[in-house]
Amino acid sequence: MKGLIIAALGLSLLTNLQPASAQQVAVKEQITLLHGSHRVGKRSDAAMEKWRGYGLGQFIHWGLYAIPGGAWNGKQYNGAAEWIRSWNGIPKSTYDSLNYSFNPTAFDAKAWAKTARQMGAKYVTFTTKHHDGFCLWPSKYTKYTVKNSPYKKDIVKAVVDAYDQEGIDVILYFSVMDWNHPDWRYDLKTKEDSIAFERFKKFTRNQLIELLTNYPTVKGLWFDGTWDKSWVKQAAFADELETEMRKLRPGLIIGSRFRADENGKRHFDSNGVLMGDYEQGWERKIPAKIEDVHGNDWDCVMTVPENQWGYNAAWNGHIKTGNELIEMTARCVSMGGNFVLNFGPKGDGSIRQEEIKLATEIGDWMKINQEAIYNCEYAGYEKQDWGYFTKKSGTDKIYMVVFNVPVSAALRIKTPPKTIIKKAYLLADTQEVFSPEEISGDEYFLHLKKREQSKPFVIVLETAKAEKGNGTKYEKAKI
Ligand code: FHN
Asked: What start-end ranges are recorded for coiled-coil regions in this protein (predicted)?
């Protein structure tokens, strides 16, 4: 069956005759798709459960673009540093020759992994190949790799080993779009384009199988550069390749950016069902409310400045602070997502001081408050202005991650029906307990003793289900 069938097809004809409630019965009928989503609802296996509990991750964008660091011959490029090759200010061939200067003498994968662990990251997404096509592993299928640079050594292996060692799961970033490959096309307009792209598809498949074979401990693949028409038209091929990869690595986690369905729909198929294991569309933005994630798994990837992923020596605009990034982490977890903070190491392989400082600030906070972030989920509590609720999965333990203390120093809580608060205390100091003051049925104030706070803090609520909540004293208004 082709095309979407809308049950209320004659709706527009009836619009003037029907009341609003009758118009709302318009229901989309499901259509049969050959290459749509393979599943409705969340994955429930151990690998995905673990992914769901990460809370905080690290993204690393590193490649040849780190050498110019956002500038060429003293001129600043206005876009994201990793896109500098697309700038007319540089001849493409000159950029492509940067592999002959790639010799990151300060690269130390173990130091990177230590920084990530100290920050509290539970997973890392690492760029094996960005849009420029340069491979940080010695791929057999192209000469444009680290093997043919002065550095020579396999960087992907060093990163995977170092992060494995620190107990941080690794996800490999892979850009399908490849500016360096002669057979890559943005669109397939001629027969020659199609012939070239067939070769490119084979190349892409070989590289992905190579990555999964060379680095068997990786937990997933993070795809990018999949928006061009050439790739969007490959629904059958990409579907088959996804199946092949999943067969090769059971438990492999793949987000919603890999493939389109046969109607060219990306992220969500023509029936509106998520493609892949989690929604990958939250780039530099966070859902405003729980309804926006439609019950799906998701993660948010975030830059420190506005839009710089690769190293840019001249960060400008607003630079996020440690507290802002902690807030984003809590906000994501409160809506069931993971927060992934990007790092763009320099051309020599070292991590810039600003990023080290942020990692330290986040890590210092996480050391005390991580219980409210790891293995936590949406709590089902009404959102309050002071911050975010998270809930330890599988328990009745609720965390209040407090960022804004009101002048009254009273934090409002509205519990879901039939919930009692048994105990409330500060996570950092369990001796500091609070007695919730009932202000209405199911609504309470927690009165803070100190009003001045320089850091976000966490209050734990030990709750339980009960026939009636604590809040029974207040009679509802009869209106
Ligand atoms: O174009 C890329 C960009 O350089 C960066 O890699 C981000 C990371 O999510 N992804 C693409 C834009 O969506």
From this structure: none
